Amino acid sequence: MMTSLSTKRSATIQSVSIAARFLDILAKADGPLVLGEIARRARTGSSTAHRYMQSLVREGLAAQDEVTGHYDLGPAALSIGVRALRRIDAVEVAARAMKALASRIAASCGVAIWTERGPTIVRWYRSTDFAISTVTLGDVLPVDNTACGFVFQSHLPKDAIAAARKLQPASFRGSRPPGEVLDAVRRDGGAELNEHLFSLLTGKAAPVFNAMGEIACVVTTVSFVKTAEAEGHREALFAAAQAATRDSGG
Question: Could you tell me the mean pLDDT of each successive run of 10 residues in the chain, 250 residues long?
């Protein structure tokens, strides 16, 4: 009796896993797929793919075109996706990524959001191998003198940047970055400024986007220039930003 129950449980779990694989195939496709292509991508036979797809159609998780017979995601799957996205907080996702990064590299790692006064630090994690005491929670960073500022400038409307620039203290104001610099930030996926505000230190920043394709926050690191180069902080930060964007639905 126990063996039979265990077998049934295993079979049920396996069925869910296989169904999830078919849904993932539909989600990653560029458009509707024919049954044979679904079977090929799932590495199953056509009969198996047909049974699962028909079950998913009945539950509304998949839909089948009556004319072509092609399969796509159904209304129930789309509803689940929308509800999941509404529950995702990109800042919290980015914060977890930065906390993890601070435990791996010799750098202080943080998250900044955009406020009317400019980039504002809302999360800050100090590494056991490096800590900078000049940055704390709630600090507003210069728009024109920090990597964070450059990243926000490359993705926000010019009027929002101009309004924040007017509210920043005179000591914050620097030269506005040329258009080609902001183009490079967008192209490269982030920005870095070496020994700009503090000697021997480098600031790096990268954007995190939400499901709407809008910039939700900026992740940033501060560390010694030589250490950053040796440990590959730029690559690590940019990879963390991309992962946070993906996990935020962006």
Answer: 46 78 91 94 93 93 93 87 68 94 94 94 88 79 94 95 91 84 95 78 94 92 92 95 91
Q: Considering Cα of 86, then 89, then 90, then 94, what sign does the dihedral take?
A: negative
For residue 26, how many other CB atoms are within 10 A of its CB? 22
Residue 8's pLDDT is 47
C-alpha to C-alpha distance for 75 and 78, rounded to whole angstroms: 5
Distance from C-alpha of 124 to C-alpha of 7, rounded to nearest angstrom? 49
Angstrom distances, CA of residue 111 to CA of 55, 59, 131, 197, 216:
43, 40, 15, 18, 10
Name residue 133's amino acid.
S
What is the per-residue pLDDT for 1?
42
Tell me if the pTM is above 0.70: no
Boundary residue ending a domain (58, 86, 114): 86
Q: Does residue 151 share a domain with residue 77?
A: no
Domain ranges, residue 30: 2-86
Contact 143, 118 (CB under 8 A): yes
Continuous segment of H or E residues that includes residue 202: strand 201-209
Residue 69: both structure tokens together: 């017979």
Residue 135, classified by CB atoms within 10 Å of its CB into exposed (0-12), middle (13-18) or buried (19+), is middle
